[in-house]
Amino acid sequence: MKKVFFDTWGWVAIAHKDDANHKKVFLYYKDFLIKKGIPVTTDFILAETITLLRGRTDPKGVGLFIDTILDAVKEERILLERIDERRWERAWEMSKRFSDKPYISFFDFSSFVIMKSLGISEVVTADRHFEEAGLGFRKLF
Questions:
Q1: Which pLDDT tens digit goes with each residue over 28-72?
Q2: Which residues make Cβ contacts (< 8 Å) with residue 50, sequence separation at least 6?
Q3: What is the CATH code of the structural domain delimited by 3-139?
Q4: Cβ(38)–Cβ(79) under 8 Å?
């Protein structure tokens, strides 16, 4: 089964019907699931997604969206990776190695760690930092 990393940008585009990218990202997501693809994300990404969606949409809708993701995690249709102490430290070390790129967020570094450890190269995002890091990642939007 193909695994693709879903960044905050992707989840927000899927959940927020007024997002300029909603239609194309939602259609990609739907097709990806039909083809039995496995979305991969992290607890950090979901936390950031909740924060952004609560500020832009109805909090009840945010709850339903996140609960749907968490149900899919329980059913093993979405892989939710946790940023534990070891991964956090690896992200911190990576952020120090990329000191010449201060615009890359710690959230992104934690995502890079997960993607590298799981051998995932594609990411549902428009965030150019995934490609600018030069780690072999390819953004899908």
A1: 999 999 999 999 999 999 999 999 999 999 889 999 999 999 999
A2: 62, 66
A3: 3.40.50.1010
A4: yes
